Amino acid sequence: MAYKGLFILVEGLNDKRFFDKIIKPKLKKKYDSVEVIQYANLKKEKLKRFLRSIEKMKANYLYVGDINSTSCVIKKKQKIQGKFRNIDKGKIIVVIKEIESWYLAGLNDKNSKKLRIRFLKNTEKVTKDQFKMLIPKKFDSEIDFRLEILKFFSIETAKQKNKSFKYFVNKML
Amino acid sequence: MAITKIKISNFKSFKNLEIELGMLNVLIGSNASGKSNFIQIFKFLRDITNFGLENAISMQGGIEYFRNINIAASEPFSVTVVSNQEHGLMIQGGEGSKRLVEIKIYETIYEFVLKFKKGRLGFEIISDKLIQKCEFIDIERQSKRIMKREKFDNKIEIKKKEKLGSGEIILSRHGDKVKIDKATFPKGIMINKDDLFPLFLREEKLSPKDLLLKLSLPFVRPIERELINVAIYDFDPKLPKESTPITGKAELEENGRNLAIVLNNIVKTKDKYRKFSNLIKELLPFMDKVDVEKFADKSLLFIIREIYSEKKFLPASLISDGTVNIIALIIALYFEEKSLTIIEEPERNIHPYLISKVIDMIKDASLQKKQIIVTTHNPEVVKHTDLKNILLVSRDKEGFSIISRPEDKKEVKIFLDNEIGIEELYVQNLLGV
């Protein structure tokens, strides 16, 4: 059987942490290898070369980006396509609103209480700054807080609280 | 909460230096550019508070190597430290007044100048000054009588009322005594010199070789505490691999030698160990457990268990240098309560792939009220550091060390706009153009 690899291109370390801990283990059965690559520090030309190489080796890839202030998913995808002409629209995953929304989506009421943070029924409007304001005093490290969230993360709960996450899970897992 | 500015003259390779510092400062520069000499400024200031001025100069190699070799005694040595650490004092708002005024100090400037004796290796203190910029807040005092065990006790409740304005207090050395040179207050506040600086403290004498920092005055103590609370690390991963006597220091030593003792305290505390375990697994996912073994000769050795072996622990002596360095780094960043943490080459022995995560942790720790300075030669560190946090140390035409910010350079901006990475500019030695 031919080699089946998946490359997930994510913006920064917070995205990488999420995909490494939550998504990668779920994809291991489908693929021979799953690699999560950060693109924030890659120059545009280098990223284009990455995409070309992945296509040449006939591996699959996903390009993950936050919707941020863009008005809709279609426009966000067009923006990304404008930057990288050789990118496949179907392989772009748009996170609504930022990766922090996905982190919080996986917490149910009980686990939110355990972490001493407010329970949110829907996380589609949560921004990075709002996420930072939720960090309880007992955490003196944002990284530690994010890692604690991921320990309690439930994919089923997250699907109910964030549509963009549900779309991604239904498409990929 | 931090040292915001340092100004120094005639110190080691520096002729004149004035540099503003942020919460995170990444010091880069060629070999022998003066990075370590910059770090020595903080060590010198810490040594003064710990051991006194004469010993601090001796610990820099004596006057000969403390000052610049070429400038020598022709110019004095001077240092100015600016801190934005806030602290407050309560004083009576005037003679016989029931009014309480809070003096909230928001900036402290401490400076001193040493003149060297020509032809001899002596010095004298020619200036020693503390300037405190403050806000004055009127405090409303309410007295309530409460009954406690059949006796009446007075309980005073205080309520903040209003800001009265700002002012400045300047203390300096005059011969062997400390005097208030200037005290400016907002209009309407009557504060006596005695309220601000009691007579019995004014009578305290300073020896000719001692600085203001030596006196335990209410105005001096906060800056003294800030200068003493500096940790400088230069980890040697070989040392923590040996067993440590349990009688060692509880705080991490400069070279990391007593890592087992520090870890022993962490593994015993549930929440500390939870945090440590999260952070260590973030960098080393194969790490299952860290523990400390106690031997009959009253020494400690740390041990680790990897996820690949369920029962077997590996002793520190068999652990890689990079793993030891990462453990020491996490402790320095997250478990040592220091106001300023300086780490020499934190990326030592660490795989390039992990460097972005290490830098992320350094940034994370600097956001938690901990000021950090790191030195590096590594382009990966430069790549993952925000440009605004980079300080470039270089030598000028006369050989004196200078520090600049690549962020301020027009040429660097042009290179970056043209998609040439900061790390490429660093490797090509173009950050100083």
Shape of chain B: globular
Work out the helicity level of chain B. 25-40%
SS-based class of chain B:
alpha+beta
Please, how many helices of chain A? 9
Number of strands of chain A: 4
The general outline of chain A is globular
Could you tell me how far the N terminus lies from the C terminus of chain A, measured between alpha carbons in angstroms?
21 Å
The H-and-E topology of chain A, N to C, reads as EHEHEHEHHHHHH
CATH architectural arrangement of the largest domain in chain B: 3-Layer(aba) Sandwich
Quaternary state reads: heterodimer
Biggest interchain interface, per-side counts = A-B, 15 and 19 residues
Whole-number total of structural domains of chain B: 3
Number of DSSP E strands of chain B: 18
Distinctive features:
heterodimer, A: 173 residues, alpha/beta, 2 domains, 4-stranded parallel sheet, 9 helices, 4 strands, B: 433 residues, alpha+beta, Rossmann fold, 8-stranded antiparallel sheet, 6-stranded mixed sheet, globular
